[in-house]
Amino acid sequence: MLEYIKLETRRTLRDTMFVIFGIGMPVVMYLLFTNIGTDEGDSAPWRVTAMVGMAAYGALGSALSAGIGVSTDRSTGWLRQLRVTPLAPSRVVTGRAVSGSVTVLPGIVAVLAAGALVNGVRLEAWQWTALTLLLWVGALPFTLLGLGNGYRLSPQTMGVANTVGLMGLSLVGGLWFPLELFPGWLASVAAYTPANRFADLGWAVTEGSAPGPATLAVLTGWLVIFGSYAVASYRRAARTA
After folding, report:
1. What does pTM read for this prediction?
2. If you write DSSP's letter for every residue of 152-212 in order, what string do you get?
3. What's the total number of domains in the chain?
4. CA of 8: how far to CAs of 18, 120, 126, in Å?
5. Which of 41, 133, 148, 211 satisfies CB 3.0 to 4.6 Å to 233 for a cystine?
6. Which domain holds residue 68?
7. Per-run averaged pLDDT (10 residues), the chain, 241 residues
8. Which of 166, 224, 23 is nearest to 158 (CA)?
9. How many CB atoms lie under 10 A from the CB of residue 82?
10. How far apart are CA 232 and CA 229, in angstroms?
């Protein structure tokens, strides 16, 4: 399975569109959101909050993109080849999830680097480390969601599904705008969305604390849901491939 993970990781990192939209776009959006129309003296807290939100946004987009390769594999017959190997469905999905998680890391690091080097964000060394690791590991549910979609949808449909999913989860989850600006009922709903709790992993660290038990519980629940969806989708695709 290790060789399979290496293969899928290399394939993704060679994709020019992934580099542009998965790494470059979140950095550009972060710098625009925090440097246009804001007073430098009053924007320091917002630059930290937005940094975490945009790093989470980039990670979410990269994680969902893991399904694009899966969908392409289905159309080229690669899934049929996997079906005759000794790999169990859970191991195939796990291998894809691991390789997808590896490709999430560059986008996170790029946004955090922009925060530190361009916007002057200052955190303790342990905070930078914890922030990177938590956002990296915390993106796993979205990787599984992307894989589940990839095993069910065509390559053309995947592009639309990823765009709708990324924008919807990001907006409702408060990755672009603070929940304090939301209507009360929407803020209550957003608190239970996977994107909001994902970003909360990072926001907690920047405030010098560990993620709360509610955040961990909600994310774990979404991990189980999306993981089950990915395995079920793979089994369905294997039967019909």
Report:
1. 0.86
2. TS-HHHHHHHHHHHHHHHHHHTTSSS-GGGS-HHHHHHHTTSHHHHHHHHHHHHHTTSPPP
3. 1
4. 13, 35, 31
5. 148
6. 2-240
7. 59 65 87 76 81 95 84 69 63 74 87 95 96 95 92 85 92 90 90 96 95 96 94 79 57
8. 166
9. 19
10. 5
